[in-house]
Amino acid sequence: MKLGKVEFCHFLQLITLFLCFSGMSQAELSRSRSKPYFQSGRSRTKRSWVWNQFFVLEEYMGSDPLYVGKLHSDVDKGDGSIKYILSGEGASSIFIIDENTGDIHATKRLDREEQAYYTLRAQALDRLTNKPVEPESEFVIKIQDINDNEPKFLDGPYTAGVPEMSPVGTSVVQVTATDADDPTYGNSARVVYSILQGQPYFSVEPKTGVIKTALPNMDREAKDQYLLVIQAKDMVGQNGGLSGTTSVTVTLTDVNDNPPRFPRRSYQYNVPESLPVASVVARIKAADADIGANAEMEYRIVDGDGLGIFKISVDKETQEGIITIQKELDFEAKTSYTLRIEAANKDADPRFLSLGPFSDTTTVKIIVEDVDEPPVFSSPLYPMEVSEATQVGNIIGTVAAHDPDSSNSPVRYSIDRNTDLERYFNIDANSGVITTAKSLDRETNAIHNITVLAMESQNPSQVGRGYVAITILDINDNAPEFAMDYETTVCENAQPGQVIQKISAVDKDEPSNGHQFYFSLTTDATNNHNFSLKDNKDNTASILTRRNGFRRQEQSVYYLPIFIVDSGSPSLSSTNTLTIRVCDCDADGVAQTCNAEAYVLPAGLSTGALIAILACVLTLLVLILLIVTMRRRKKEPLIFDEERDIRENIVRYDDEGGGEEDTEAFDMAALRNLNVIRDTKTRRDVTPEIQFLSRPAFKSIPDNVIFREFIWERLKEADVDPGAPPYDSLQTYAFEGNGSVAESLSSLDSISSNSDQNYDYLSDWGPRFKRLADMYGTGQESLYS
């Protein structure tokens, strides 16, 4: 009959309990038969109240308390006079004692893995006196282990790596399982390992848990990862033992066991001849099944006719071979190139060299495509020289360009005017001859850098550029002049022959041998008795005094003309005037003041009198300003400023008015005051220059005349001035509002046009139209009455 795991455990517990009870009985018999001992000095006597340890089985699952053992004293006669007391770890909570019999029971399930033993103390007391009849004795209750814990992999699951192509027996990783059972008691904690999943590639050592490779030549490129299941079983792997499992993920790491291989034996690429230098022509890549550093490539051109034209490098990211241009391509010179390219691993593994060469080659053919290229100049830069004295239209030099294409199209030349904004130069469109178009001045611009454009006649979009540097050669066309504006002074106490100023000159020209200036006084100043000039022969000259006794009161300023000649061919000269002021100087010759002083005040006036006169003059000026200001701030004239008001209301002339109810789009004052007329009539669109402060006089005239003349004046002004807009009152009769049965009553063109319309019917429309009937019903001659 087969027993399950649980039944087998219960069976073991019963056997263990039986053995424990047998041992306890023997211990109690031996203690009860021994005699008490007494200790006096160094002598020792045996007695029956000494306890060592009890044993109790863990994981007891019964409903009744588990019997542990019995305490007994020889003093106990069985008459109930002795009382047993238990104290220490777990007393009363886990372990209880029958105070009459001394029997000890466990009331709770015990787990050795939580606590392996308990230390308690026992004492026998006289029940009547409650005094100890035996000394307190300490003993241990040890929890006896059963196999109730399976092995556990505390560090699982595991990951490990092993190089591909490793030999059999290569160690991969060690796994370790722990069993919480007592390793000193039985085989409950003795573990053995086995592999449940992962054969036949890997194996495991039963005792150590070391996982090793079991097959040779495992290839990462075929399969790079394996999942292993390892079992650990206690009871030395016997039936009935408990087990635990863990997973181990083993990854095969890469080794350089695969050579690079090009997918194709040959490649072909087309590139235009205009492709710039350093441009990428093509990218090729050799395939390598390895990864990482084992797949790093090196490319090189081993043969072909484009060794100096192309080069190949490696892209570190993609491991591609990048073919680039080293020199410009020319379809007319060569139409195709062939390259032999080799790819090799950067670091080969010597262990796998026997598998074959770790390199591969391929052929790359590059076809150069013809492109319509712009004209090319014979030189990248044309240096030219021209004298600044050259005449307009003289030839400076010639540039030449040609069409590099096989068609050899004619070329036309022009100057990029962005580089010759002042248009100093011209170029012949056919020959490329550069001539001057304006007079040149080296001092304004010594070098002209211009760009010449050459374009194909058949395809003007193809433009080549050439660069010309024109240097302007100097001629002596600038006279020398003072190097600076000199402020020369002479002291009143100066002595004859004293140097008062050292002068020099500058010249805008730049002669090849440098400047040489000659200084002298002009003919008119040679015989003056005040100053002389000395040429120092080093492009400087000194001004000296000829006398003493200079006085500011007599003459405060002297003007000395100096003649300067340069060494050019032909030489140029100029006359420069040196201004010399007479100053009062201190003992060291330092000028103190150079202004002429008035030593005698006119008319004997004192300083106080002069100040009073100036104060009066200022007061009069202030009064005059106040009077002028007050006059300008006079009141506004009472005359109604019709022009301003009317012009502000012109904003409504995009329609014909709002009818009789509209009083905002125009000035109604002129129409409401129809009983008066001003004597002085001015144009409403012109502001009168003179405004009268007096109130204008008005006179009464009949209503019809006033209204007729008012309308007539406005119509006449509109006819005479075609640029003037139709002002207020003209708009009054332009539109009578929406829905009017009379429709439009506009009379704007009644005078200027030859209208035959009869307005006599206006008198039948009632009092509101009486005025219009008087104006238009009697005929146009009424307007002149």
Provide structural commentary:
This protein has 785 residues and is mostly beta strands. Among the domains are: 53-144, Sandwich (Immunoglobulin-like); 152-253, Cadherins (Immunoglobulin-like); 266-369, Immunoglobulin-like; 376-473, Cadherins (Immunoglobulin-like, Sandwich); 481-593, Cadherins (Immunoglobulin-like). Helix content is 12%, strand content 31%. It contains seven helices and 41 strands. The strands form twelve sheets. Strands 32, 34, 37, 38 and 39 form a five-stranded mixed β-sheet that branches. Strands 1-7-6-3 form a four-stranded mixed β-sheet. Strand 37 (557-565) and strand 38 (573-585) form a beta hairpin. Residues 1-6, 19-46, 598-603, 638-649, 672-702, 728-737 and 779-785 have low confidence and may be disordered. The chain crosses the membrane at residues 599-628. It is found in: Cell membrane.
